[in-house]
Amino acid sequence: MENQVTVAALAAAGLTGPMLERKDDTSGANQSMMVKDAINNIQQTFAEFRAKNDERLTAIEKKGQADPLTDATLAKLNEQMDIQQKAIDAMALDLKRPQLSGGSKSGNMSVDEQKHRAAFADFFRKGNEDGLADIQQKALNMGVGMDGGYAVPKVIDSQVASLMQNISPIRSIATVVQTSTSDYRKLVNLHGTAATWQGETSTTADSATPKLKEIAPPSGWLEARPRATQQSLDDGMFDFEAWLADEVATAFAVSEGAAFINGNGTNKPRGFLAGPAPVATADATRAFGTLQFIASRQAAAMPSSFEPFIDMIYSIKAGHRQGSNFVSNSLALSAIRKLKDADGNYMWQPSLIAGQPSTFLGYSVVEAEDMPAIAANAFPLAFGNFKAGYLIADRFGVRIQRDPFTAKPYVEFYTTKRVGGDVIDSEAIKLLKISV
Q1: Helix/strand/coil for 52
Q2: Within a 10 A sphere around the Cβ of 59, how many other Cβ atoms?
Q3: Are 347 and 306 in contact (CB under 8 A)?
Q4: In terms of pLDDT, which residue wins out, 199 or 50?
Q5: pLDDT at 16 over 90
Q6: What share of the chain is helix, strand, coil (3-state, %, to 5)?
Q7: DSSP per-residue codes, 94-106
Q8: CA angle 117–118–120, rounded 5-degree value
Q9: At 124, phi and psi to the nearest 5?
Q10: Mean pLDDT in the chain?
């Protein structure tokens, strides 16, 4: 599949006229120019947003309330910035998406991988299972278990994983491990080991015994059922590998994105908001696995000052602070965009680099729509080092079954992947709770 920015993405980013006329030119220079123009547009939108918000604050100071028209304009500008940022992210993803088809890729594969790819193509397009069954049987004899269906070639599986990494918000910031078993376990040190100082001739004492806890991330099967007509499969120009990777990765990323935040751990990952009820106590006295929250100091709204956000940042240990991110949905993001410091500077800034998130108080903001809405006692914002705090366990290999009967005239491809997830360091993630 060629790297091509869609008209819809360009229009959503505010690019019209001559820019849209270049949509069929896929040269790197023109694509980079499109991304640059899109970034300029979001900066212009934010400048308009700042001006309108200043008007709003002035009206509140003079009249005690904001003008409804100003609030409505701010809401529209907020929505426009969200659309523009998502379009920029889509274009950045398109720019770094590798081609799957073509001889250049085949030259980097082993002989076995090339045979697997050719047999899979025959199965995918025509339903011929003979060659693929032989290859999978050989893998089974070498100790790879069979879960039903056929394993997709490594090149497609890697592309699915790459796309999921870019689409799924929590996956993009968490630790991801590949495992060959569905019963993955990890030992976590609860920081019980202590070192002691000794004199040259003094009696050596044993250090404290390390406290270890075994984490077994709950997991489940992700399922997608992309469909294509037999006519399209027979078309030699149809890039089925890229189509399958796109369809499956998008479907998987949406489902797992919700599970990594709110999943209950039953046949799916346990989300970081689904563990024991968060408490206000600090790390030293809080039970392992329980997250700490910082109160918003507002009964039913986001903070009106920076203090709760600063408290969130500095409640994280210094070792975790570097590499930390804010995670919020668009409604919480719209609230923090309006905040200014004592000198009148806005502390939220749009991204200046394609593929990089916006920042708040100098930390990246990852937008995840599955975060809770702003309401009393809700947790609409998280901050932390998710690489240290949350583990995603992928059982290596996407599997697929071909079904030409259920959805005629379409051929349905029943595609599965096993994924698990859980919190592994509850000191590395903090939550904002809407409460006084």
Answers
A1: helix
A2: 15
A3: yes
A4: 50
A5: no
A6: 40, 20, 40
A7: HHTPPP-SSHHHH
A8: 65
A9: -65, -45
A10: 84
Residue 390: pLDDT over 90: yes
| Mean pLDDT computed over 406-420 | 94
Greatest distance between any 2 Cα atoms in the chain:
85
C-alpha distance from residue 241 to each of 159, 178, 235, 299, 398 (Å): 9, 22, 13, 51, 13
Tokens of 233: 């499969």
10's tokens: 């360009």
Cross-strand bridge partners of residue 349: 359
In the numeric block, the tokens 């903090």 are attached to 430
Which CA distances in Å does 316 have to 21, 60, 321, 324, 392? 49, 35, 6, 9, 21
Nearest alpha carbon to residue 384 among 426, 419, 436: 426
For residue 364, give the amino acid letter: S
Mean pLDDT of 242-252: 93
* 323: nearest Cα among 266, 278, 372, 384: 384
Name the residue among 3, 103, 94, 413 with its Cα closest to residue 233: 413
Q: Which residues of 231-264 are buried (b: 16+ CB within 10 A; e: fewer)?
A: eebeeeebbbbbbbbbbbbbbbbebbbbbbbbbe
Give the β-pairing of 410-423 and 390-395. antiparallel
The residues, ordered by sequence, that sit 6+ positions from 236 with a Cβ below 8 Å of its Cβ are: none
Q: Which amino acid is at 57?
A: L
Token match 């011929």: residue? Answer: 128
Give the whole-angstrom CA distance, residue 306 versus residue 168: 28
Percent of the chain residues past pLDDT 70, beyond the cut: 83
What is the distance between the alpha carbons of residues 414 and 265, in angstroms, rounded to a whole number?
23
3-state secondary structure of 421: strand
Strand partners, 103: none
Beta strands in 362-409, from DSSP E residues, in sequence order: 363-367, 381-384, 390-395, 399-403
Q: Please report which helix (H) or strand (E) contains residue 411, including its range.
A: strand 410-423
For residue 107 the two structure tokens come to 């030259």
In angstroms, rounded to a whole number, what is the distance separating the alpha carbons of residues 280 and 288? Answer: 14
Assessment of whether the complete model's pTM goes beyond 0.85: no
Identify which of 224, 219, 186 has the alpha carbon closest to the alpha carbon of residue 419. 219
DSSP assignment letter at 425 = -
Q: At what angle do helices 240-262 and 111-126 cross, to 10 degrees?
A: 90
pLDDT tens for residues 161-213?
888 988 899 999 999 998 877 778 888 877 655 677 777 777 666 555 667 78
Distance CA 77, CA 72 (A): 9
